[in-house]
Amino acid sequence: MKRIFYKPKDGWVGDVIPFYDQGEYKLYYLHDKREEGDYGNHTTWNLITTNDFLQFREHGVSLLNGTEDEPDRNAYTGSVIKGRDEKYHLFYTGHNPNPSFCEEGKPLQVVLHATGDDGIHWTKDASFHLHGDAVIYERFDWRDPFVFWNEEEGRYWMLVTSRLVGSSEKRGGCVALLTSPDLTNWEFKDPFYNPGKYIAMECPDYFRMGDWHYLVYSTFSEKFVTHYKKSRSIDGEYGSPILDTFDGRGFYAAKTASDGNRRYAFGWVPSKTGSSDFGDWEWAGTLVVHEVYPNEQGDLFVRMPEAIYGYFNHDMPLTLLKGHHHRATEDGLVLDSKDGIAYGVFDPIPQQSLIEATFFNWKDVKDFGIAVRTDDTLDRGYFIKFDPYHNRIGMDMWPRTEPGVFQWQIAGDKPSIIELERPFDFTDQDRVHIKLILEDDILCLYVNDQVAMTTRVYNHKDGNLAFYANEGSVEVRNVRVRTGQA
Asked: In Å, what is the CA distance from 11 to each residue of 18, 33, 39?
């Protein structure tokens, strides 16, 4: 089975640094081996290349981390640019947490530089060390440089995850701005973005589509998620609609790249401790790619990349095995229950599959949705809830607690996985079309080619497909389950 979601055999995918170059995407990523069970130690920049997000060529280590006495003991996030000098330039974060290193007064995080001729092999610039100026920006939070050429100003700009000197501990995070004529000499400027609401804004990314300028960043304080903001000008006021995220808790540190026609967001779905649904989220995981596109108002939506959708080209026969308060139709079924649950259960689904279906005519319903890896009574499995009353999509599972913890205990009842909720305005929709990829322990959902929700699904490894309605009615049409190419 070809895996859709990339993970190296000897480690995990941390922050992805995408760069489109000569007809292919170069996807550098922080390669985390989780040495001695810890995260983010001795990370290197590894490289994979692809032109379809299906076939990945592994190049191994592209940028090696430093020694225990060097500032890049851990080589962390940055960016790659092809300069006007026709050389490739890599800017990255050097991080060394060793007490002996920090006690010497050296900064914990520093921006470093490397150059190359092919975007694969790099020579480190030992003379380049850029840290916070301690005037505008603190010296200790200083990471994730993103460098681009500002055509309007005729200078290079660098965005850096930083914090303002003397600011609030909780809300002092900002995106620092530096400018340069030559990628060597940098001048500190006032912050590019300073909303006064985050501890830090990680992995900043800037791009322009049409008449809109976009800033992308990730946060871990109010929510663990990737945000975007938009503006009519590069140095204007940045704002966003209420839905200002690409995905939920299961998609982090996303950065984008474009081939000049389509733009994609590259993030990672974190693993969980003990490979269990009840484990804590961990740092790093598996690569996930969404296509990003704007509507007429400049708001950004996400959808499944076309090549991934096309990979699933074998339809699996489907049989309605069992139902309750249901009625079969020519192209689906109607679920209708005045009080209680109506449902229809179909065949078991393969470990890797694409599920498609469309919901219509929901009426007086508390919620409705889809169940995967369930049984014929819906007593176990994963449940995606469409909740018109609260205008949200939610994730649920059953059992909701570990074995031996009673469901009805106060400490044991979790009616939904709150951190996986996604806003969705049902008042503006006449149908809900889902595309859902299941691959081993990853679930990736797209709704109306607008909203995505990605997560891990460990504990239930097989089971049936089902649809349900809770106290009300809904019509389900065009149910398809497809597997991948042989």
From this structure: 19, 4, 11
Q: What percent of the chain has pLDDT over 70?
A: 98
Q: List pLDDT tens digits, range 3-14.
A: 999 999 999 999
CA-nearest of 97, 94, 4, 66 to 308 is 4
CATH architecture of residue range(s) 12-303? 5 Propeller (2.115)
184-216: buried (b, 16+ CB within 10 Å) or exposed (e) per residue?
Answer: eebebeebbbbbeebbbbbbbbbbebeebbbbb
Residue range 29-50, pLDDT digits in tens: 999 999 878 899 999 999 999 9
341, burial (CB in 10 Å: exposed 0-12, middle 13-18, buried 19+): middle
Handedness of CA 110, 114, 119, 121 (dihedral sign): negative
CB within 8 Å of 12: residues ≥ 6 apart: 31, 32, 33, 34, 268, 271, 284, 285, 286
Q: Which CATH class is domain 313-484?
A: mainly beta
Can you give the residue ranges of every domain in the chain? Answer: 12-303, 313-484
**Predicted model pTM:** 0.96
